[in-house]
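CORE FACILITY INTAKE
Project code: CF-77B
Contact: R.S. (postdoc)
Sample description: multi-component assembly, two entities in total
Requested service: structural model of the whole complex
Turnaround: standard
Below are the sequence entries exactly as provided by the requester. Do not edit them.
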Amino acid sequence: DVVMTQSPLSLPVTLGQPASISCRSSQSLVFSDGNIYLNWFQQRPGQSPRRLIYKIFNRDSGVPDRFSGSGSDTDFTLTISRVEAEDVGVYYCMQGSQWPWTFGQGTKVEIK
Amino acid sequence: EVHLVESGGGLVQPGGSLRLSCTASEVTFSGYPMHWVRQTPGKGLESVSAISPDGGTTYYANFVQGRFTISRDNFKNFLYLQMGSLRGDDMAVYYCVREGTPGSYDYWGQGTLVTVSS
């Protein structure tokens, strides 16, 4: 199975400051069609996960533009340009290139 | 907006069986692959099983292979997960999830809790 490794696992941030989460895969995520199916999800306390980003950098409708995704091959990053209070939660990367699809351990974002 | 609603979770003894169901409101999910994903405090999020839009192709994680069966009824707009030989490490919140875009989950249900205990 592809192992997804996130860092850091805990991220205290100051409101209005940027935050970045790293995600590394144990294998290349390039699918046979040439796409890289790397996703980012946000899970707020008590809620189901919600997709923010798909195929590395494509932001979902309704997701604030302070969220952005980048990366290639095996190294990926989720960046929040200016953290707001509503961004508190756990963030997961997930690869959908190889079955079984696998998730990172999660990064808990909290406000300092 | 798509709403996925799971049901069927509950308390079951080790070795027992349970069937989870999922239905969609507002829109059919018949044209999309559908998945079950589970979440535990210890292991986090895990893909459990997936099924093609017509139900002809299924996928399973190694840890449920031979014990769980995924199926769907596109006429009734239902997705199922038949779980058997349940173990303590199957205890989790199980989510019904839509693969609305290739390689990704776009909609999640609210989850249903499965507790395995004697």
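Facility notes:
- The first strand of chain B starts at residue 3 and ends at 7.
- Residues 50 and 103 of chain B are 12 Å apart (CA to CA).
Invoice: internal transfer
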